[in-house]
Sequence to fold (78 residues):
Amino acid sequence: MDLVINNTSSLKQADVELDSLWTHTNGNVYRVLFFTNEDNNKPDMYPVTIVYQNEVTGTLWSRALYDWHRSMTKGEVK
Fold:
């Protein structure tokens, strides 16, 4: 599934796998839990969103798929 926002950026949902670990630029490690808004027909209004959890604190977060790679790197940095 390709997601195009304002025709300026695209990212395949398959690039982010469920249960994968990602490191934020601040050093925190997060686990991808699930995607939301996958089946909507208005992606400009309701973009696909990633819900993810801090591996240490358990805090839940969400971020639009098109913005994911701006501050996330795949894998856990030790």
Summary: Residues 2-74 form a domain with the SH3 type barrels. fold (CATH 2.30.30). Residues 1-10 have pLDDT under 50 and may be disordered. The beta strands are 2-5, 9-12, 21-24, 29-36, 49-54, 60-64, 72-74. The two ends are 32 Å apart (CA to CA).
